[in-house]
Amino acid sequence: LREERYFEGSTTNYRKNRTPYVVRWNISPVHDENGVLTHFVSVQQDISDYIESERQSRLLARALAASHAPILITDLDERIVFANKVFSEVTGYHPDELIGNTPAILHSGQHEESFYADLRRALANGQPYRATFINRRRDGSIFYAEQSIAPIHDKHGKVTNYVSIGKDISERVLRE
């Protein structure tokens, strides 16, 4: 401000009741026709909700990554947008090989098409789907996964993604 230049930044302010809130500031100098600084115009935007949303998003991302269950998230076109480390370990695929592909990359050929039709029908109706999948790892070996797949809704109730949380039950199936 001493240099009479534009300033942009953020800070924590306090309400009259002493509760904090975060603002983003844009401060512009205003000069008269002779180039003399006459005042500043400050525009502030309360970004507290945005900051909290970002904090929650980072927490959720860390929780998904730390989970001991294989977790996969797809978009509406069934393209994989997230796979945690455990999912990669179980399937043998590196996350970079999964992102952008569909879960069909895991199809073993041991399910009837009606199995996948039931899955798609449930999800299209906004219903979760739970089943034991016979999948194929990257190395070609078969594994059994007990999976729960559920739609994720936005604040308006529209489905935006699907999340699959699974459990490798291969040892149990082989014992049985």
Q: Short description, anyone?
A:
With 176 residues, the protein is α+β, with helices and mostly antiparallel strands. It has helices at residues 48-66, 85-91, 95-98, 113-124, 170-175; strands at 7-14, 20-31, 37-46, 71-75, 80-83, 129-136, 142-153, 159-168.
Characterize the structure shown.
The protein is about 25% helix and about 40% strand. It is an alpha+beta fold and about 180 residues long. The strands form two sheets. A five-stranded antiparallel beta sheet has the order 5-4-8-7-6. Strands 1-2-3 form a three-stranded antiparallel beta sheet, with helices on one face. The model has no long low-confidence stretch (mean pLDDT about 95).
Helix and strand arrangement:
Layout: E1 7-14, E2 20-31, E3 37-46, H1 48-66, E4 71-75, E5 80-83, H2 85-91, H3 95-98, H4 113-124, E6 129-136, E7 142-153, E8 159-168, H5 170-175
Antiparallel strand pairs: 1-2, 2-3, 4-5, 4-8, 6-7, 7-8
